[in-house]
Specification:
Elements lengths: L1 H64 L1
């Protein structure tokens, strides 16, 4: 039974390694998704900032023209 036990242990270790690899891959994918969401939020905030600045500049120009 020594051979069968060794094979079982080897398969068990291989299964655990595959499981860890899959979990690591899922975590990396999740990290990339979080990073993409954060980048999108930054771009949105920058666009809102630029829009507000343009609006304020236009208001200021109208005040100066009067």
């Amino acid at each position: 039974m020594g051979f069968a036990d060794d094979a079982k242990e080897t398969l068990d270790a291989t299964g655990k390694k595959i499981g860890r690899t899959v979990e690591d891959a899922k975590e990396r994918i999740g990290d990339k998704i979080d990073e993409a969401k954060a980048d999108a939020n930054v771009k949105k905030a920058e666009a809102e900032r630029d829009s507000t600045k343009a609006k304020n500049d236009a208001k200021e120009k109208l005040r100066d023209d009067n």
